[in-house]
């Protein structure tokens, strides 16, 4: 096992100072209340793997809520409690959060059945978890600060780079772990253990995923697609028949790899150019996954997974519109004149950024790509100079006609027909003032 001295050094050298301070204070309060308090789970896993993890999870052997309340009383932070679960969240002034849970002791605290094993509560709490690598705990209180508890072979599995469940019913108890196993495996570059993979496959075969709500499956999928590069996890899902489970037609062909790679390029391009503008990369990738499904299949998948209406709209209506627009650009280029900028604007403006990036990834036509990139870099930010009061001053009474005027002004500007403010004024006079028809 790891020497306490070594763990203390990790805590002292690899964590930001403010997190170190918080751990010290948690330990102080624990010591004063005579409670054993541990940092657990992903935080400890990532500490040993030397990966940054800002989700600090604390487990208290005893009343976690009382512990958190005392901490909040002493130090400058707010507390939010969930009595039903015996959990609390400490919220620091900079919005940094620490989750505090009570070690679940309900299993053995029957009258007369006092624990004989040392630290039975934390051990039982950790036993409920998904994979061995998530079962490490580090003691925080006083003289115990830095003691590492490894009840289930976590250090071995970290060394062997293995994702392993703690017991045979793990996937049956919580089928979302099927997705979590894949997510951790790909993120950490680990491998699901042989026995664990058998358990996973048999849980799949026996249909346990059907027992959890579609929205929970969806949440797990989103988490996978939110990883920096989801393609390996998607390929692994295919390998484990999870794509087929989602939809029978969702078979990844070879070109999926190419598509995901293109998507990544499009996303990187967008982020570099428009730093800070929102771009949900997971949506772009998800659209890539769906690329070979027809509209009806997508709609039924969305329904099964209880996807929010706005996203459903993106996956069906907006996706279709993007396909239509890019086909049109391609066709127009071949047979007639290329589309005018105002047309491109009209096609793309109603669509989510992510749908357009997906279209960019999907298209292998230079003209289509050029249209998309000119929309992003130029067209979408074009505005006309006149405002409502300018139109009013020209003597046009406010009404629905204004909307039409602004649309035409914008279109003419996009197409380069109007350049200055005076051009716009002339345009409006010419088309909307009956007494100035001289030029026509
Ligand atoms: N957990 C579990 N079963 C689940 C979800 C979570 O056993 N279905 C446990 C895991 O052991 C995990 C802990 O609850 O360590 C916290 O969950 P989460 O925050 O999702 O896990 P992290 O390991 O922190 O993962 P991430 O790095 O993605 O946040």
UniProtKB/TrEMBL annotation:
Recorded superkingdom: Bacteria
Family note: Belongs to the tRNA nucleotidyltransferase/poly(A) polymerase family.
UniProt-recorded name of the protein: Polya polymerase
Organism: Syntrophotalea acetylenivorans
Residue window of the full protein shown: 446 to 885 of 885
